[in-house]
Structure formats: C-alpha cells, structure tokens
Amino acid sequence: MPARRKSVELSIKRQAIEWIASEGGGVPSRAEAHFRASDWRISAGGFRQWWHNRDQILAGQGNRRRLDGGGRRPVLGEAEDVLVDLIYNRRLLKENVTRDWIAAQARQLFRSSRTEEEHEEHPIRFAASDPWITAFMQRN
C-alpha cells in the first residue's frame, strides 16, 4: 500500500527553501539527504516543487499548509461579485433575499455575462441548483 500524502506547514517549507538557497547551492534535490538526517520524510520531488513555487511559499502565511488559488473556479466568475452587491443592496433596503431570488438573479447574470460566440464555442449549462446556492452562500 502506498504511503499517504502528508501535508507540511509553509513555515517548514520556508525553512527548506532557505537551506536550498544558502547551503544547497540552489539545487533542491540536495535537500533530501540533508533533511532526511533530521527525520523529515519528504522526497526530492517535493523539494523541487517547493523550490519551483518558492515565491508563493515565501509570500504565504506561516501556519497554513496549502497555497491560495487551488480548486475549481466559480462558474459565474466576476458576475458573482455583482450578485453579492445585489444581495447587499437588497438587504440594505430591508427586502427579503430568498434562495429562489438568488437563483433567478444568478441565472440572469450568467445569461447576460456570456456572448453568443462563447455559448456556441463552450456550451455550459448553469441551473443555479440548491447545492450551488449553498456553496455560493458559504463562499460569500
């Protein structure tokens, strides 16, 4: 059975990057032998990947384990920001914001945000389903 993936904090990745830059001579694979003596169980490929992403890792926060930007992009993209603004404006006017209203506005924004050429080249069905609304509400 293969070993499970072990997540590593950015502070430890930062420590390895600093060692590679100073004592490792900029060669990430040299770090495997050095840190294996310190009981780190990380492959040379892991060090190479950290070295490749070093700018993002050095800019990241220390207690996190993953970098920002992973995962699927929202279907609506920038139209989600418009939808959030519509919701805030409606709430400021003390009007109810229901899940059905959010779904209707999302469908309308999706239709208006795409041109006919985009729709013909990359047809995407967007239904604003109940799970999508739940995830949207958690994101915003």
- The arrangement of helices and strands along the chain is HHHHHHHH
Q: Classify the oligomer.
A: single chain
Please give the number of β-strands: 0
Largest sheet: none
General shape: elongated
Helix content: 55-70%
The residue ranges in which pLDDT falls below 50 over 5 or more consecutive positions are none
**Secondary structural class:** mainly alpha
Distance between the termini: 40 Å
Mean pLDDT: 84
Topology:
Elements: H1 10-22, H2 30-36, H3 44-52, H4 54-59, H5 79-92, H6 99-113, H7 116-121, H8 130-139
Helix pairs in contact: 5-6
InterPro entries: HTH_CenpB_DNA-bd_dom
GO molecular function, one term: DNA binding
Protein name: HTH CENPB-type domain-containing protein
Structure description:
The chain has 140 residues and is mostly helical. The chain has two domains: 10-59; 79-139, no CATH class. The chain is built from eight helices and no strands. Residues 78-140 form the HTH CENPB-type domain. GO terms for molecular function: DNA binding. It comes from Phytophthora sojae (strain P6497).
